[in-house]
């Protein structure tokens, strides 16, 4: 039997890890974004709520099961999806807080918002935690969904 | 007419002399929890820069944060503020909050229907010395309006 040494990662600061994450996001490289996270990394997009008749879908779960799906869906709906990072603040415990704008032009449905070719750019706040191995083990984000919906011309409060 | 006026907590009693950025922010949040707007503002610099994205406050200042705090404690007199997490990253302190309460007056254009509100928020503070000099506030106004039974973003006051 052959044993394989675990891949070694060049350890950088938590702020560098998160900066690289946003660079991957700019390239729409969801695989790299996911690989930068631990297998069990927590994911929470707080404003993400899709209210159905019998249940509410929330953007809470794990990066590999929920986050990856949301990122891919966003990029599919907004093929020119972009991010502009304004600040990255970190501490020596692995906490990283990012202020950024995320935006794009809608080409296919997103949630209940039908595509009208609308373009949005909305301030976001991301809170990450990076573990001692340089892997992201928590991603949480806040933004004003009403701001996005207004820009896209979707005025119903679903 | 109010018979009793809420007394603001003196800054010394709040322990904000030679404090860490987190302690300064906690003094603000603790006062906010007590619905004591003036005490919360006592740790905010008069030249503070304020951005409250859901309320469309951009490049705002001291009066804007005063108005925002006053509006919410007035509209939700049973306001319950849960401090879920406070993260200090140098001079920047980020607080994750849950704001809960029962609407008792119009708020952000939404007519009072006595609905219960619970909305998760993130407040990012910048601290200089023992004063807050920057506040960026994030929550989803869609979630807030949904809980207050608003149906459309272009007809917020229509029930």
TrEMBL record, chain A:
<feature type="domain" description="SnoaL-like">
    <location>
        <begin position="18"/>
        <end position="136"/>
    </location>
</feature>
<protein>
    <recommendedName>
        <fullName>SnoaL-like domain-containing protein</fullName>
    </recommendedName>
</protein>
<dbReference type="InterPro" id="IPR032710">
    <property type="entry name" value="NTF2-like_dom_sf"/>
</dbReference>
<dbReference type="InterPro" id="IPR037401">
    <property type="entry name" value="SnoaL-like"/>
</dbReference>
<dbReference type="Pfam" id="PF12680">
    <property type="entry name" value="SnoaL_2"/>
</dbReference>
From TrEMBL, chain B:
<dbReference type="Pfam" id="PF07366">
    <property type="entry name" value="SnoaL"/>
</dbReference>
<protein>
    <recommendedName>
        <fullName>SnoaL-like domain-containing protein</fullName>
    </recommendedName>
</protein>
<dbReference type="InterPro" id="IPR032710">
    <property type="entry name" value="NTF2-like_dom_sf"/>
</dbReference>
<dbReference type="InterPro" id="IPR009959">
    <property type="entry name" value="Cyclase_SnoaL-like"/>
</dbReference>
């Amino acid at each position: 039997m052959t044993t394989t040494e675990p891949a070694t990662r060049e350890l950088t600061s938590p702020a560098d890890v998160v900066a690289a994450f946003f660079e991957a996001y700019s390239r729409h490289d969801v695989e790299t974004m996911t690989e930068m996270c631990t297998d069990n990394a927590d994911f929470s997009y707080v404003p993400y709520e899709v209210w159905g008749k019998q249940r509410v879908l929330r953007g809470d779960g794990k990066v590999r099961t929920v986050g990856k799906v949301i990122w891919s869906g966003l990029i599919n709906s907004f093929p020119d999806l972009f991010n502009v990072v304004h600040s990255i603040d970190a501490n020596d415990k692995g906490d990283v807080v990012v202020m950024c704008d995320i935006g794009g032009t809608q080409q296919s449905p997103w949630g209940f918002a039908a595509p009208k070719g609308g373009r949005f750019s909305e301030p976001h706040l991301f809170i990450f935690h990076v573990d001692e191995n340089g892997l992201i083990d928590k991603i949480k984000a806040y933004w004003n969904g009403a701001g996005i919906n207004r820009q896209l011309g979707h005025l119903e409060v679903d | 007419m109010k018979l009793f006026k809420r007394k603001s907590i003196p800054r010394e009693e709040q322990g904000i002399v030679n404090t860490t950025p987190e302690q300064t922010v906690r003094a603000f949040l603790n006062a906010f929890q007590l619905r004591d707007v003036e005490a919360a503002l006592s740790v905010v610099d008069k030249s503070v820069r304020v951005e409250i994205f859901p309320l469309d406050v951009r490049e705002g200042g001291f009066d804007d944060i005063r108005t925002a705090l006053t509006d919410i404690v007035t509209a939700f007199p049973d306001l319950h503020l849960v401090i879920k997490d406070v993260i200090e990253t140098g001079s920047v302190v980020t607080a994750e909050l849950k704001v809960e309460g029962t609407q008792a007056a119009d708020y952000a254009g939404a007519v009072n229907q006595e609905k219960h509100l619970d909305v998760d928020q993130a407040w990012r503070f910048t601290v200089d010395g023992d004063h807050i000099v920057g506040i960026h506030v994030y929550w989803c106004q869609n979630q807030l309006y949904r809980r207050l039974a608003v149906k459309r973003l272009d007809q917020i006051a229509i029930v």
